[in-house]
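Much of our argument rests on the idea that a fold can be written as discrete symbols. Part of our work consisted of pairing the sequence of a single chain with a tokenised description of its backbone. We regard such an encoding as a compact summary of how the chain folds. The amino acid sequence and the backbone structure tokens for this protein are reproduced below.
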Amino acid sequence: MDISFKGKRALVTGAGKGIGRGTAKMLAKCGAEVIALSRTQADLDSLKKEEPTIQTVCLDLCDIAAAVKKIDCLGDIHLLVNNAGIAILGPFEDSKPDDFDTIFSVNVKTPMFIAQAVAKKMISGEYGGAIVNVSSQASQKALKDHTLYCSTKAALDMLTKSMALELGPHQIRVNAVNPTVVLTEMGKLGWSDPSKAKPMLDQIPLGRFAEVEEVVSAIVYLLSDKASMINGTILPVDGGFLAR
């Protein structure tokens, strides 16, 4: 399927590593003018070497006011990928208030207000757009030691649907992708132990975890005009895990 984003400007958060990095590179290859956000300058420097056309911005998205101010200075944005996120894992009984505040701030509050800032640009410019939030299969099925993470991704799914409802009249589509385990650095944090990985793999009909490129392909499709009637979708990229 031939997809082109020529003439479109795309903002990708958490673009220094993993899914975000792969998405930024793929969007650039498809002709988009890409703005890559990360809090780690070294990751952005290496990304810039790989794809010199990408504009990089080093920014800690936990400072919402500073992030929104920066986004306001970036000009028109037609495509947004809310990929930045963290995992704080541990037994339910050991969960701490500070951990709750931190993970909800990064995984729910940040994508909401980044999307709000971008959507205001889309609305005022009257050019519409597309937003993809990177969620997880953990939004729909509880996983051991993932209480906080599962809860944030469930909230992100409902945020996606609410945004789709309210932004649709402005011709702004909002969807989410919900991958199974992807062995990025964050994925390895929870699933590198074979004894823990095997029970999860046993529940995936395809019998394997996802590759970064497989999630990127789903994101790029949802951003494209090929998905012009898809809005408010929560798309599993999970090898059939949630089909059980």
Q: What stands out?
A: The chain is about 45% helix and 15% strand.
